[in-house]
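Changelog-adjacent note: as of this version, every example in the card shows the full chain rather than a window. The one below runs 226 residues end to end.
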Amino acid sequence: MDPKIYDDAKSKLLKILQETKSEMEEALPFAMNPVIYNFAINNYGTVSRLLRDDNALMPKEYYSLLVPQLARLNSEAIPDSRKIEVDMFSLRTAKNDEAFPILRSIIGNVFKFSDKAEMLEKQQQDKETEKIKKENGFDPIQHEQIRSNLIKGRIGLNRNRLPSETVIEDVSPSDVIFLNSLDDRDQTGSRAISNGSVAVLCLAAGAGSRWTKGPGLSKRSIPLSK
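Full-length structure tokens:
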């Protein structure tokens, strides 16, 4: 997409998707409202940077979480390499005036308390999160069901396969009806719906978790019924 028209095109595409969803909502279930993702081209792929000597440290946010965990351990249980690492980090923060905010963060993680400013910020974040969920049709009941099934092992990669006793056979000519031979001017489609005989085309390109009450498995392994 031409970057010069990106912003305008993005809003128009979203409008087209939303209008399409509105038109098809009674015929095709949508688990969420349409969204437009922002993608960027990565010309480098997955890269890493080697840090040496005093620079071979993790970000400060990492240590604000790590140090409270180490403080709960017996000193003898902490490897010397870890002690040296934390000491190097404390020395670096003392030199660049980051010591106080990091100390504040560490204390907060040790005693699990928040000041008024942090509480207000968290409340604002929670409010914004709920707004995003609502705008995108988030279903908390379905989400919790899928989460529970995943934790209990009812769904997942190890279950993303057909039963061992499944028999797979070639499709016979009598199983296929070519749609281009149908003409609904004689009410073929209407009669098929009225009789409960409906053809379903299932494109097995991904997991079925976005289907209404989808089990999170490959679509080809999901039984379809009237």
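Structural remarks: The chain has seven helices and no strands.
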